[in-house]
Amino acid sequence: MPESLAGARPTLEAVAARAGVSRATASRVVNGGAGVRPPLVEKVTRAVEELGYVPNHAARTLVTRRTGAVAVIIAEPEIRIFSDPFFSQQIRGISKELTAHDTQLVLLLLEGPGDYDRIARYLAGGHVDGALAFSLHTDDPIPAITRRAGIPAVYGGRPNWSEPAEHRTVPYVDADNRGGARAAVRYLEDLGRRRIAHIAGPRDQTSATDRLDGYRDVLPDADPALIAEGAFTAASGERAMAELLERCPDLDAVFAANDLMASGALRVLKERGRAVPGDVALVGFDDMDAIAEGTDPPLTTVRQDIEGQGRLMARLLLRGLDHERAGAPAPDPVITATTLVRRASA
Amino acid sequence: MPESLAGARPTLEAVAARAGVSRATASRVVNGGAGVRPPLVEKVTRAVEELGYVPNHAARTLVTRRTGAVAVIIAEPEIRIFSDPFFSQQIRGISKELTAHDTQLVLLLLEGPGDYDRIARYLAGGHVDGALAFSLHTDDPIPAITRRAGIPAVYGGRPNWSEPAEHRTVPYVDADNRGGARAAVRYLEDLGRRRIAHIAGPRDQTSATDRLDGYRDVLPDADPALIAEGAFTAASGERAMAELLERCPDLDAVFAANDLMASGALRVLKERGRAVPGDVALVGFDDMDAIAEGTDPPLTTVRQDIEGQGRLMARLLLRGLDHERAGAPAPDPVITATTLVRRASA
């Protein structure tokens, strides 16, 4: 892709002309957009994208004292990031949004908990303007790390702590996990299923506990033997399904807290000769591109817009960077809707 | 993973004691290892890893003027990085090696050629000590970008330029692509195949042209109609296979330049009723974890150690950072061996 370095660069004047605004307005938008009316911001942003305008970094840094880069941290070992399509979809949304705002995505990879000190040093070193973090676990150190580094952060999924404490309100983007789970379990009930099992995610993540709460909202008196815990991976879905069949051979439906675990459960159900959906109806969560439509039968599942959540996280952070300068408060959490997608598995 | 922030940190004295060296030697190794004999470097490195020692960043920065971070740049759009397991395997090797040397992996994602200017700014901004780049294309701007940024870089795969020029010698790690291809084609010949087709990779990457050269080494007079070009993706392997069957319905073997294209070719061969290996013997390249053993029949393929190449790239760069201070020349290229792995497809 060598073309980018050759050829004349579009100027800020060209951007202003195309957007129909003054050079000063175009400059303000390119450097963050504070104090410019949203319709003008949009016009200039569109002109920037159409012309492929690249602001002069030295000039911009002087005005904004920014690096033009945002860190993305996934609180999972590197190996899970590349094997679970959830992460690539979220990164895709973030990457598109940051690129549209000429901001560099810096993905900080880690192997294990011992690597957080190094990440803390990098964030404190002034190498990024802000951070986006997701897949946090209970009492995750990342919020404290970003606070100490003095940079704003937006989280994917609601962070949670084992004890209430101060400074724990942080901006985040999350799906309506509890509402989505309720819809899934109600749907199984409406199909006439009476022994509905749940394969939950790890209890140290709110996406898992919220979905479990949704299951319990609909079935407050459910037999505890009908609930098994997995780790959001296909292999853990297989193990949980085998456990459930052992404990409750009469189960007639399963709601799995994500599609990967549902795909593992489906394999075990087939191996044990249980017809899906005939003997056991199965519902997942996520509507993951690479999984839900590819299983046999295809998965009925609760759809959440993962890429859209990534875009929203990036947008909130970029806005937060402007607010910070304008002295405005941090943005409120954003909860995105979920919808039940009916396919053949239930 | 919150444990990392609590608990007492191991000290440099503890590292020195465990390694059986002086504190001064331990310090020198922790800060880069220049001027310390390799066996001592190894002892201290092992003690650092065993104790989980984290050097005081401020102190280390003063001594070394380093950020403790290395950029990884893949010259492909973000979407291919997460869909082609080649990249995750190479990143895995890099991540392990950098983590073992307490260096932060900073993956710079890009959407397209227009993003190189932004990457150039980030690299020139002093946010990383060096760069590892792979999947470069002909006349790729990345070597010039790292040179202008004044940071050392090591490449995965031999970079190439359309015209010879100065300053084009760069350190790289590559597999013996040509030798591996020769072994694959000779093997097909030894099986008695007489119409051996080749699905080549994109001609702007040396891994593709080297494998094509290996094919031609064995079959200098091959019918040009037996060669089709793909793009290293499964879909492009399907298209190339369909073309080849159209042009040369009598072909009895196919050597595909990677496993992804071989898996696509296999699907088309089956659809058209050609038995593999009965009617058409098929050989791939890479021996990719998630692919080669999973096809039906499993793929005979040329194995290269992708994760190992990632580790080597990181090791060369870290050594280069030391050499730089010591005034030594850049390291020579490293070519790793390939081996033919025989499975059922040929």
Automatic annotation (TrEMBL), chains A, B:
Residues 10-64 form the HTH lacI-type domain. SUPFAM superfamilies: lambda repressor-like DNA-binding domains (SSF47413), Periplasmic binding protein-like I (SSF53822). Keywords: DNA-binding, Transcription, Transcription regulation. One of its GO terms (molecular function) is transcription cis-regulatory region binding. Pfam families: LacI, Peripla_BP_3. Gene3D superfamilies: 3.40.50.2300, lambda repressor-like DNA-binding domains. InterPro entries: HTH_LacI, LacI/GalR-like_sensor, Lambda_DNA-bd_dom_sf, Peripla_BP_I. SMART domains: HTH_LACI (SM00354). This is LacI family transcriptional regulator.
